Amino acid sequence: MNLLDLLRRGATIDAAASGAGLDREMAAIMVDHYQRAGLIELPRAAACTDCGTTARRPLGCAGCPFAEPRRAG
Predict the structure, then answer these.
(1) In the chain, what are the domain boundaries?
(2) What does the alpha-carbon distance between residue 19 and residue 44 come to, in Å, rounded to a whole number?
(3) What is the CA radius of gyration of the chain?
(4) Is 68 left (phi over 0), alpha (psi -120 to 50) or beta?
(5) 3-state secondary structure the chain
């Protein structure tokens, strides 16, 4: 399985690198590229500074457990 697929399934960078047969340094470079290209978004450890303060949030916030649900009307 390739690195991108493993990351999308929730694998850590170390586990994805091992599963794809890559060393960790190469995997980290590829992860950086995937993030910049918008192919993946790594989970955050804490809430963003703008979490819940703006009506328009980035698409990556959609599955964030820290993001407050949008309220209708």
Answers:
(1) 3-36, 44-73
(2) 23
(3) 15
(4) beta
(5) CCHHHHHHCCCCHHHHHHHHCCCHHHHHHHHHHHHHCCCCCCCCCCCCCCCCCCCCCCHHHHHCCCCCCCCCC
Residues 6+ apart with CB under 8 A from 67: 47, 51, 52, 57, 61
Compute how many other C-beta atoms are within 10 angstroms of the C-beta atom of residue 31.
19
pLDDT digits (tens, 9 = 90+) for 19-68: 999 999 999 999 999 989 989 887 655 555 555 555 566 655 656 666 55
35/33 Cα distance (integer angstroms): 5
What is the pTM assigned to this prediction?
Answer: 0.58
